[in-house]
Amino acid sequence: MKNIKYFKYFFDYMRDGDYPFFEKFLILAALAYIVIPADIIPDFLLPVGILDDSLMLGGVVVLGGKILKGYFEHTVKKRTAELEEKQKLKDKNKTVDIEEDW
Fold first, then answer.
1. Which partner for 45 in 10, 27, 49, 90 could form a disulfide, CB atoms 3.0-4.6 Å apart?
2. Domain residue spans in the chain?
3. How does pLDDT run across 2-28, given as a tens digit for each residue?
């Protein structure tokens, strides 16, 4: 159940326009390379055919993980800043309301 949130972050990242298209394209291309049977080294040439897919999967997991971690941290900071700004506005409005009552 814990890993489901990573899929959510992945899809949110892919839809976010603040990140470069090329970076997203490379991730999708690597995933397609793993899934599509037509590879540079065909899978029926064991074990080398499976090895290239395994290396690609490892690269996607490591680099994709770093990218998603950075995306998550950026999103948390952005959301925290928005909430703090909202709270400051609320506090400012409360202060103004109290002064107007006097």
1. 49
2. 4-101
3. 677 778 888 989 998 888 899 899 889
Question: Rounded to the nearest 5 degrees, what angle is found at the Cα of 33, between the Cα atoms of 71 and 14?
Answer: 25
Q: Is this structure's pTM higher than 0.70? A: no
Cα(71)–Cα(10) distance, integer angstroms: 9
Q: Taking a C-beta distance cutoff of 8 angstroms, is the pair 13, 67 a contact?
A: yes
Query: Which residue, chain included where needed, has tokens 């909202």?
Result: 86
The CA distance from 94 to 88, in Å, is: 10
Could you report the per-residue pLDDT of 47-72, keeping only the tens digit for each? Answer: 888 888 888 889 988 988 888 888 88
- Do residues 67 and 27 make contact, with C-beta atoms less than 8 angstroms apart? yes
Q: What are all long-range contacts of 62-67, with beta carbons under 8 Å and residues at least 24 apart?
A: 63/27, 64/10, 64/27, 67/13, 67/23, 67/27
Query: pLDDT grade, residue 99 (50/70/90)?
Result: low
Query: Which residue's entry shows tokens 């959301």?
Result: 79
